[in-house]
Every structure is written in C-alpha cells, then in structure tokens.
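**Backbone geometry record:**
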Amino acid sequence: MSPRRGTVVAAGAVMWRTGKRPGDLEICLVHRPKYDDWSLPKGKVDRGEHPLAAAAREVWEETGHQVRLGRRLPTQGYDVAGRPKLVHYWLAEADATAGPREPDDEVDEVVFLPVEDALQRLTYERDADLARAALAAPVRTTPLVLLRHAQAVRRPDWSGPDIERPLSASGQRQAAALVPVLAALAPSRVLSSDAVRCVDTVRPYARQHRVTLELEPSLAEESLRTGSAAQPTGDLIRTLLADGPALVCSHRPLLPVLFEAAGAEPGDTLEPSEFAVLHHDDDGAVVAVDRHRLDAA
C-alpha cells in the first residue's frame, strides 16, 4: 500500500508473550491518556526513517521492550482529523528482561492481557482485527535476511579485480542507512561473500552491533561461474534455517540459489541494498517472506 500525498506514516507491532499456562498468549496494549484509548504500540515514522526501524523504536519508547520484529502484518489505512494515515505493523515477541515503564503523558499504562481480554479491551476494532490476523499464523519465527550488496562502482569504471570492486559513494550511504533497519531484525550472525562490495555493505552493522563478520567464498559470484555454488550454498542456507537469526549478503546472480535452497520463491530481482526476510519456524520451514528497500517510507 503506497501512501498518498500528505499521508501520516506510522509503524508499530503486535507484541506478545507466553501466558501463565503453556500454549496461552498475552498481547501488549498501551493506554494513551491524550485520547483515553487502548491501542497497540505504534508511532510516527521520522523523516528519512525506515518503517522497520520506526516500529522497533516506537515499541521501545512506548513499552520499554527492545524487540526483534517478526512477520509483517497487514498495513492499516484510515483517516485521522481529515488526513490519511498509514500504519505498518509487525509481530514482535516481548523482551523478557524488560522492566516496568514509567508512565508519562504519552503512555501511562502498559499491560499484557490474554488474547480474548485484549481483543475486548482494544478501543478500535481495526486493532482487534489486526491482532486476530497476527495470531492466525505462527507467532514465533526466526528471520533469515537475504541482502543484495549496496550500490557498487560500475564495472566499466573499475580496472582492478572484480572481487575488489568497492561500493560507490551512494552505496556507502546505503550501507550506513541499513544499520538501524537491520537492527530491527537483530541478526546474531552476519555472513558475506568475500567480495569487497558485499563485505563493506554489512560491515557497519556488524561493527556497531559487535557481531563477527563471517566471510563465505561460496556466496561470491565466482563460485557461480565455476559451478561450485549450489551444494555448499544450499548446505549453508539449510544450516542457517536451523539456527538463530542471520544475515546473508551476496550478489544478484546468487540470490535465486539462496531462495531455492530455503524453499522460497525468489520473486522479482532484489535491487542493490534491497533485502528479503525469510521468516522460518522451529522446523526450518519458511512461513513468510517480506521484501524491503531503503526508501520504503
């Protein structure tokens, strides 16, 4: 859903946690004294901010929970005071280490309620409908992020070995802009082709979040040209689908191989710095695929 001119863009999450009894879930609601309503945590996207980053930030600001975003949920569109509003939502599991949030003028109460109680307390039916949609599929998933490297110096403009071809100035800006966006997904492993343009795309995130940057030659274009990509790359992806959240940076020609190994449809070609999030369950099965670009807002 593309925003109309003058649209207020916001982002938030349906945040959940396990209830007191096994199998039970609780949903987080916030009370806003300005409107005297109960709603899902959300807020406006800042100028130049990606909705993914905004959703994680707003959840933190309104609830005190630092979360990793899960599956993307249906986007809400409605009018507020005569202006169109577009709200992007994701699932998010609550932070078990979060302490109580001090009340303020924006949010004076944060509660977790069993699903049926939460649905009844929500002021807006659209929020209840969104929560129902969120719970209709697996709520706990793990992200595998497949990222095409940022914009590189054009091949005709580079005389050195292709593996050493660097990012362009715009590509360097894209790599920096990716940091808060990827942080919303919090990958704990970062794997990259050993090509400079891939390494320099994910290095800013890895460095800022103190994640070891793992170089994987099988993710490089050269492995595709020599016919040595399919088996090791497939094994790598299948291993990651059985592991924790991960980020993989590679090249356009390799991306279909990565999607195929994950059992997911590749869809349209990812543009430079664009990425897909493959949300998989505990069995490694991909249950949803989200695609994102830096100019999403």
Remarks:
- The chain has two domains: 8-135, 142-292.
